[in-house]
Write a structure and sequence with these properties.
The structure is a single chain. This protein has six helices and eight strands, in the order H-E-E-E-H-E-H-E-H-E-H-E-E-H. The model has no long low-confidence stretch (mean pLDDT about 95). The longest helix has 29 residues. Strands 3-2-1-4-8-7-6-5 form an eight-stranded mixed beta sheet, sandwiched between helices. Helices cover about 40% and strands about 20% of the residues. It is of the alpha+beta class. The protein has a single domain, classed as 3-Layer(aba) Sandwich (L-fuculose-1-phosphate Aldolase).
Length: about 190
């Protein structure tokens, strides 16, 4: 639990999520530790519950509203940790590029680490979202949910955090690079 508490604080401090939004989990055998719904990620002490991965439980009522998405990702991938945040540039890019289903990073590090970032659809807490996120994370380290945020997976909580920071970095670079290209195209910036 200490690891989730530590990285919940890091998510907020890094601007990858505002305090009451987002969630974090870690697989432990056939169970997962997950933040509770509405909990502040920078104050997770006493706000983490344990739920089974292969069945619903009474604790689902207080677990994150995305508990079923976490559950399905753990069922269908080798992930041992998941993070869901709302990085600002990630959300902006998902709204600006409403006609694409994959973001190709521009910078070398993001290309190397993420290769590409799928964009999926689905309302919060729906089976559609769980299906789309789990399908994308079967082959990718990160996925963007249109107009919502990002999910990342890792073999460790630290790895999931690295991928979440990388998604935001890739989206920020893409945003400013595309603005620069537009300015140059319009004849400015010479």
């Amino acid at each position: 639990m200490k690891e989730l508490i530590h990285y919940g604080k890091k998510m907020v401090q890094s601007g990858l999520v505002d305090s009451h939004f987002g969630n974090i989990s870690k697989r432990v055998g056939d169970r997962m530790l997950i933040s509770t719904t509405g909990s502040m990620l920078d104050e997770l002490e006493g706000q983490i519950v344990e739920v089974p991965i292969y069945e619903e439980s009474s604790m689902d009522m207080i677990a994150s509203t995305l508990v079923d998405t976490h559950r399905m990702v753990y069922q269908r991938t080798s992930a041992l940790a998941l993070m869901h945040g709302h990085p600002k540039f990630c959300v902006i890019i998902s709204l600006l590029y409403d006609d694409v289903d994959v973001i190709k990073p521009e910078d070398m590090e993001s290309k190397y680490i993420l290769h590409e970032i799928p964009i999926v659809e689905g309302a919060e807490g729906t089976v559609e979202l769980a299906e789309n996120v789990s399908r994308a994370l079967a082959d990718h380290k990160a996925v963007i949910i249109r107009d919502h945020g990002a999910f990342t997976r890792g073999a460790t909580v630290d790895e999931a955090f690295v991928y979440l920071t990388c998604v935001e970095h890739a989206c920020k670079v893409k945003y400013f690079t595309d603005i620069g290209r537009w300015i140059r195209k319009m004849g400015g910036g010479r």
